[in-house]
Amino acid sequence: MSATIKDVASAAGVSFKTVSRVFNGEANVREATREKVEAAARELNFTLNTAARNLRRRGSNLIALIISNPSRSYIDNIQIGAMDWCSRNGFHLVVEDILARPESFEDLIKSGEMAGVILIPPMSDDPDILSALTSHHIPFVRIAPETDNDIAPSVRIDDRAAAREMTQKLIALGHRRIGLITGPNNFGVSRNRRAGYSIALQGAGLEYDAELVREGAFSYATGQSCTAQLLDLAHPPTAIFASNDDMAAGAIAESYKRGIAVPHKLTIVGYDDVAVASVISPPLTTVRQPLKDMAARAAELLLERIRDRDSAPKHDVLPHSLILRASHGPRT
Amino acid sequence: MSATIKDVASAAGVSFKTVSRVFNGEANVREATREKVEAAARELNFTLNTAARNLRRRGSNLIALIISNPSRSYIDNIQIGAMDWCSRNGFHLVVEDILARPESFEDLIKSGEMAGVILIPPMSDDPDILSALTSHHIPFVRIAPETDNDIAPSVRIDDRAAAREMTQKLIALGHRRIGLITGPNNFGVSRNRRAGYSIALQGAGLEYDAELVREGAFSYATGQSCTAQLLDLAHPPTAIFASNDDMAAGAIAESYKRGIAVPHKLTIVGYDDVAVASVISPPLTTVRQPLKDMAARAAELLLERIRDRDSAPKHDVLPHSLILRASHGPRT
DNA sequence: TTGTAGGCGTTATCAT
DNA sequence: ATGATAACGCCTACAA
After folding, report:
1. pLDDT for B265-281, tens place per residue?
2. CB spacing of B101 vs A84 below 8 angstroms
3. Whole-structure pTM over 0.90, yes or no?
4. Which end of chain A is more exposed for a tag (fewer CB within 10 A), N or C?
């Protein structure tokens, strides 16, 4: 059917090994020979057969992104960054939803079809997943794990510092009772962000009031319900810090429903800076994470490990920033 | 490293061909033999090597979803449906963003690594893409193309009927000047939905007023700007029909900004019924498309074509429905 | 019902 | 700088 290196070889009058050399960018090919081969290949519309290459190399050009995350907008950004990197580096991005069918993860791992795996929260901290990957010797990288380790590289922002800074900002605005809507507790980022919140309070001599801290699930609906609980308190907060933008959007909706104007009567801030943040009303003050860059960087670190499995895993911390839009204001 | 069919064969005391038979579910294997083989395979933690299989079969277990769509929420649902189907049917879903790097599509096609390709708007109607796929003999399926053809199977809802029904609903509510925000004109669905709108007007003896029809880009921002244009008209519409939910959300935001209450002063309805529709305020009256089911069905039809390239392409029309929430009301 | 021979298209190894 | 030979692990075709 389609041309092989042998076809190209005979068309170019060289041995097929030379064709292989050309297509692998190996040294020791005379320039004239290279050109002859390339012309013949173009003529025959030749492409290397990936299956044959993978078989012989015991390799793969597939990177898997494991998905099981309640926030689609978070995944979207990660996926875009990863897709882009893959397409520029000769890989393909395979997406696998582990929530819908847990066996699919096991299949994926056992099949050995993936050159490497990208993990996002909460899988980045899931001991079963980490050990499965490790015992099958599949290179992987973790995005936003709770803590780093020697097993795999990671990419993150400093969640603790980011949450601390945002909380300090709210304190500087005069807020003294600040509600926190966290993510689920099995997310490392949830714990780190709560720690940052707590540190900021402590630094300002404010007491940590467990009543003001509610656990959401990174969804719009839980943002609403946690906000409802917070506003029903005898002493409700004057500011609410949601651990992602979806929950912040839910918080704004709940306030709006109760006739509480944001930011005039209540300050609400989010985390992530995904699409919804600049699209709701009022636009959201939030912590920006460079999710696309994080994903691209994660793929890069993963590639290093694929190429050299014994290399020491690197741990990158990318910069975050506070995006000040219109959903925050001074305590009134 | 990892076990091969030969290892399993000698462990089970049979020939490797028998192992192959077992793992391909072929007939003519005695039950006792099958069990012996399966036990040995379990023992050795054996899995078929995909690269070898693909090489020999000249096949692949990869299906590509080509992405280049302004509405992430639309893609998300399609992707979820496709991922799920793939994981249940021994395939992997590869996502490829053609907007970020157009060459990636060419590479994908030439490499022949994909068993098939799923196309969504606007690629479903892109002549260059269709002919590239056809000339490379890559099976593909089109989701929501403008019209069907003999080249590839397709899955759609009846956009024309759906848009007609929604428009009729608005007319029944007493609206006479109904604004339409379309998608880009290179989307077949845009044209079909506008046709449905037009038919409904005609059926009610209302005139099609080009002033009331604006072309958006399926984005929140264009929903806003088109609504602004519509509301600035000397005779503004009393209802606006946006061709997707993102634009409807933008329309609501624009109305809100101008102090125009929805639905009391202005009716706004959307299309798709993606996540944002039930999450904004007021919740959106919209046309529901079963996007996940459409994607799963598309994968199914694609598989038929992969298995038998000469089979006549099927064209499925899935049911739509009108979801009546709170963003519509009678003309006031 | 089970087994044997051969080759899919590439890369590795070793030679020239 | 280039070439010959041998795998990689599986499936197809045919034989027993």
Report:
1. 999 999 999 999 998 88
2. yes
3. yes
4. N
